[in-house]
Design goal:
Layout lengths: L2 E11 L1 H10 L8 E8 L2 E8 L2 H7 L7 E9 L14 E2 L5 E9 L2 H10 L12 H13 L3 H11 L2 E9 L2 E10 L4 E4 L3 E5 L11 E4 L4 E6 L2 E6 L5 E2 L4 E2 L4 H5 L6 H7 L1 H10 L4 H11 L2 E6 L1 H18 L3 E5 L4 H4 L6 E7 L5 H12 L3 E6 L5 H4 L3 E4 L12 H21 L4 H11 L2 H23 L4 E6 L4 H15 L2 E6 L16 E6 L5 H13 L3 E7 L3 H4 L4 E5 L14 H13 L18
Parallel strand pairs: 16-17, 16-18, 18-19, 19-20, 21-22, 21-23, 23-24, 24-25
Antiparallel strand pairs: 1-4, 1-10, 2-3, 2-4, 5-6, 6-7, 7-8, 8-12, 9-10, 9-11, 11-15, 12-13, 13-14
Helix pairs in contact: 3-4, 4-5, 8-14, 8-16, 9-14, 10-14, 10-17, 16-20, 17-20
The structure holds 6-O-phosphono-beta-D-glucopyranose.
Length: 608
């Protein structure tokens, strides 16, 4: 997820400054490198560097970027680490066509090979850079107009994109095209904007036009023209006036980043599924050949590793153990050259995890990591890395990165099962079929449970403690649900294996005591009924998370969250986590908590 912005205006101004201000409003979309393309004296001027917007703005002489037209980009790296070469904008061989892009081009390798054969010289590791060279090839070699060349190019792109193009060939207009990635236009009488999101130009105009998929737009200083780039039909779309306050706009109209990120999960999981990562098979092979496997993580990331632990044990028949990073010493004596260490970390900067990795490397262990932030410290200590592609997560409490981590753990487990032969081909194929369906199941789950979570939270918010119970794979879900309720609603919540809760914890249960039961329709279902009955017999109020239609458990709960069918049993930990994210969010809302920045917490703990 990156932030893009473009401005074309009638007057000559310090346009670089306005672009940087606009990008700053989009920093929540990505912040590892920044760049601007402007046109002055008939030439494309590119200014870009690695670093956050404020850092890059310091390095470059922003005031020197003058003119009537410019585009700007703040990057969240997907293809290629955050470096100056990989920063956008990217240009063609002659530096006459510059492009910024938000999205993922899935077929960029084949397009890149074609361009190299045609003699193009590409400077970066990014998928984006193929775009200006494809446009150049069509303009220079096939005499297409710039507009035709851009349209021909985007028709060949597979994946997601929102692009802006400025060129010295036609220095008075910005061409844009979009599919799946967002793009909006802001309208002023003498200045036009295009951007990934409204906050970029909200201080300048509230008149907005939203672009739809497969639309191409030409923007000049006094207007815009939209066409469908497949049918080439002109589209008339009137602007509407945005009523949001600026800080609401950064959250896409959601009151908090956490709720926005809960709702982003269908897309973030689709992005993970969309990108083919060769490291996945290498990781699975190294796990298969190892004697011992230790999964290392902290906080929410630790809970996601329980899916990995379960599936690696199930499919490789070898001891895989999830270890909390700060408790690494419990197993450090077992680490050797036949050991795989599998760190899972959203930030890639958690010091507890880094220290454990450094020690394990001294003992010649193999380090295979799962990380969200490309180029982060942990990736530099890893033999292989699997990326989450979840985009920046601003809310301190992990939501979309948790479900992406869990999906990656499942992904690794499935490949280990295929390599070890423990998973026969038909089982593997049907699981892979359902895997592609996960974004749809998550979208339905979010919609199905939003108002229920809000309703139940009015009761839950008055409580001071609670239990979250699960069995097997979904003990992980219970643990993550309890952590969410603690970290954002500040209600003491304890997760426990449902079967174990009668050995002690049940002593705390009294009339109307909240107990959440994570009860998928799998082999644990019948036992969960027993646990619910035990707790209810002592007065507990049961909130059940069930597969839709599970009447046996439904009638035992005072309230229910329902998960639609369509996921494979070993992937239930993803949809079953969603209602618990929503429940903790709405409970925190009712308790007036600082949801995006919970007290005492930090997004990344780079201290021990
Ligand atoms: C905590 C965060 O500080 O660190 C959690 O609040 C996170 O959300 C944990 O799961 C581990 O962080 P990371 O970046 O290593 O996944």
């Amino acid at each position: 997820m990156c932030g893009i912005v473009g401005i074309v205006q009638q007057r000559e101004t310090k346009i670089g400054k306005t672009i940087i201000e606009a990008l700053t409003k989009l920093e929540y979309r990505g912040y590892d490198s920044v760049g601007i393309a402007s046109i002055s004296d008939g030439k494309v001027m590119i200014t870009k560097d690695e670093g956050k917007i404020s850092e890059v703005a310091e390095k470059i002489d922003i005031d020197s970027i003058q003119g009537k037209i410019a585009i700007g980009h703040t990057r969240w790296a997907t293809h290629g680490p955050p470096t100056k070469e990989n920063a956008h904008p990217h240009t063609d061989c002659n530096g006459e066509i510059s492009v910024i892009h938000n999205g993922i081009i899935e077929n960029f390798q084949e397009l890149k090979e074609e361009l190299l054969k045609q003699g193009h010289v590409l400077q970066s590791e990014t998928d984006t850079e193929v775009i200006p060279h494809m446009i150049e090839q069509l303009v220079k070699k096939e005499n297409q107009s710039l507009q035709e060349a851009i349209i021909t190019t985007v028709r060949r792109l597979e994946g997601t994109f929102a692009i802006c193009v400025v060129s010295s060939l036609e220095p008075d207009r910005i061409y844009c095209a979009k599919r799946d990635s967002p793009l909006v236009i802001g309208i002023n009488s003498d200045r036009m904007f295009c951007a990934s999101d409204i906050p970029a130009f909200l201080e300048h105009t509230r008149k907005v036009v939203l672009l739809h998929d497969d639309e191409f737009v030409t923007i000049s200083s006094n207007g815009y023209e939209i066409i469908d780039f497949n049918s080439m039909k002109k589209i008339v779309r009137k602007p509407y006036t945005v009523s949001w306050k600026p800080e609401m706009a950064q959250k896409g109209g959601f009151p908090h980043f956490m709720l926005k990120e809960i709702h982003e999960q269908p897309n973030s999981l689709a992005d993970y599924i969309r990108i083919d990562q060769p490291s996945l098979i290498k990781i699975a092979e190294k796990i298969h050949n190892a004697e011992k496997v230790f999964l290392l993580a902290a906080g929410t990331a630790h809970y996601s590793t329980l899916t990995g632990e379960n599936l690696i044990r199930k499919y490789s028949k070898k001891p895989a153990t999830s270890i909390i990073s700060s408790e690494y010493e419990a197993i450090s004596g077992l680490v050797d050259e036949n050991t795989v260490i599998l760190p899972v970390s959203q930030s890639g900067e958690t010091m507890d995890t880094i220290m454990a990795i450094k020690h394990a490397r001294e003992l010649d262990a193999t380090v295979l990591s799962v990380v969200n932030v490309i180029g982060s410290t942990i990736t530099r200590y890893s033999d292989e890395v699997l990326y989450l592609y979840a985009g920046p997560e601003i809310g301190v409490a992990a939501t979309k990165t948790y479900t992406a981590q869990t999906l990656s753990m499942w992904d690794i487990g499935l490949e280990v099962g295929k390599i070890s032969g423990e998973l026969d081909k038909s089982e593997y194929d049907s699981a892979r079929e359902l895997y592609r369906n996960i974004p749809t199941v998550i979208r339905q789950t979010i919609v199905r449970n939003e108002s229920r979570a809000n309703h139940i939270s009015s009761w839950f918010a008055k409580k001071s403690s609670s239990f979250f119970l699960g069995r097997g794979l979904n003990l992980q879900t219970a643990k993550e649900g309890a952590l969410k309720m603690k970290e954002i609603a500040y209600i003491h919540s304890e997760a426990y294996p449902a079967g174990e809760s009668k050995h002690g914890p049940i002593a705390l249960v009294e009339e109307d005591y909240p107990v959440v039961f994570v009860a998928p329709k799998d082999h644990t279902n019948k036992r969960m009924i027993g646990s619910i009955m035990e707790m209810k017999a002592r007065g507990a109020t049961a909130i059940v998370v069930i597969e839709e239609g599970d009447k046996d458990i439904e009638e035992l709960g005072k309230w229910k969250f329902e998960i639609p069918k369509g996921y494979s049993e070993t992937l239930s930990t993803i949809p079953f986590a969603i209602p618990l994210q929503q429940l903790s969010y709405y409970t925190a809302m009712r308790r007036g908590c600082a949801i995006d920045t919970p007290k005492n917490l930090s997004k990344t703990l780079t201290v021990l």
